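DM from R.C. (forwarded with permission)

"hey, sorry to bug you on a friday — could you get me a structure for this? deadline for the figure draft is monday and I only need the backbone to look sensible"
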Amino acid sequence: MGATLNPAQQAVLDRLGAGASVDDRPEFAPDLRDELREEVEAELAPVAAVLRSDRTLVVDKRLLGGVHGCEVRFRHEQGAPFEISVPVLRGTVVHKAVELAVNWDGNPPPGALVDEAIERIARADHWAADWLAGASDGDRAEVRAAAGATVAKFLECWPPLDRSMRPLTEVTMRAEVCEQRIQLKGRADLTLGQPVDSGNRARKVIVDFKSGGFAPVHRDDLRFYALVETLRIGVPPRLLVSAYLDSGTTDEEVVTEGLLRSAVARTVDGVQRYAALRTGEAAPVKRPSAACRWCSLLDGCAEGTAHVADTDPFG
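My reply, with the result:
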């Protein structure tokens, strides 16, 4: 790659398995996509039957994460207006800056990437453009500082991505099932490699960048992406990576047929449960978790308050 890597960058490269030959990659059955699609469609046919004829149900990681988490919080947030804040803007700017970094020639400083990201977002038809236009100098500076720190961590922990690795950023993937009545949709922060000239051998790596710490739902999100990718092109990715920028660590899972089938089960269960909530066949259930700490309903939720108190390290 031509660059001298620090230990953290070299570790990432080793975990990605960038040096392995194509013949070392796992190979999947050519009819796996058809089998998975048939299973998904058979289970979701009753849901598709109750949808409006002129609308498509879009299923993404947020919907599935919400249904499998605290349903009361999920339904409340679905009905609440979207609020833009400095932390929300930081995430948006970081993703745009990382996209620029991956495709930028040379070695740009974090501040330059962040400034360019902010300017591009401000000029685009983007939900954040109006906020940036009306933000005070202090708010813009706070966004720039917070995003710059995270982008710097990305540059410190991740090796330069050679174009031979075929890096792509902000990759949208879709798979339509049940006669296009239901759309499974994902958006990967980064993908590496492409299943080109390799038959049914898995080559692609899907990466999600995280600024916080590990949570089990991060694996669930990536497994969902792997399922969508398999339904889309017929070849599963070979590796799923959650990259934690604050700690410089990664969490990896090798894609197997069993992993894909578990993703089918979770997706089907989530969509069925969401339909039951929307049609009134089921009432939302409270499920306390670490997310209770920043839930807007916490003050009036006995279960959430008890959970937060129970997890307090000082008792």
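R.C.: lifesaver. The chain has two domains: 27-80+165-279, 86-157.
me: no worries. The longest helix spans residues 257-279.
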